[in-house]
Design brief:
This protein has a single domain (2-14, 42-172), classed as Protein Transport Mog1p, Chain A. It contains 3 helices and 10 strands; from the N terminus they run H-E-E-E-E-E-H-E-E-E-E-H-E. The chain has helices at residues 2-14, 79-93, 160-169, and strands at residues 22-26, 31-35, 39-45, 50-58, 61-69, 104-108, 111-124, 127-140, 144-152, 171-172. Strand 4 (50-58) and strand 5 (61-69) form a beta hairpin.
Length: 173
Amino acid sequence: MMLRGFLFTLFVIFSQLGNSQEKYANHTYGFKIEFPDLYVDEVKEKEEMKVISISSSYQKMIFLASIFDYKKAVPADELNLKEIEALAVTAEAFNAKFKAKKIEKWQIGAYEGLSYPIKGKVTRNDKTMKFYGKMYVVAIKDGIEFRLTILAPSKKSYHADKALIYIKSASIN
């Protein structure tokens, strides 16, 4: 529920901003990415994990990157399960149907992960927003998970070329 509200607020705020590329780097986790516009980042400390959320927008699209530090190692044989769980939870947050057959492999540098298309809608305060996009996730054995999500209100407003540039700009050292 919090994710839905957060994304709705981000969409409204970011739809008002201009356009200038911004690079984000987190040296602690060795993560870098280039956003199509100014970004906002937020850090939440929880007992079992630390979550860093970075978000930006371009025209009507929302670009999200998240780093989840689970503070404990994830066994190698559970990495894919962790990634599938992340995809399913995100799909559920957007009221999108989750179908395992739509999962695709994805690679970021030396790491392999999974991607999943998102098509759903969220209702908040009697307003319904539709979402179309894609999510990418990679879990690393050190207990760190990276998620990249790109959303637009429709397939027509989803700029695949901008999404591809965003995804290809991501790197993990």
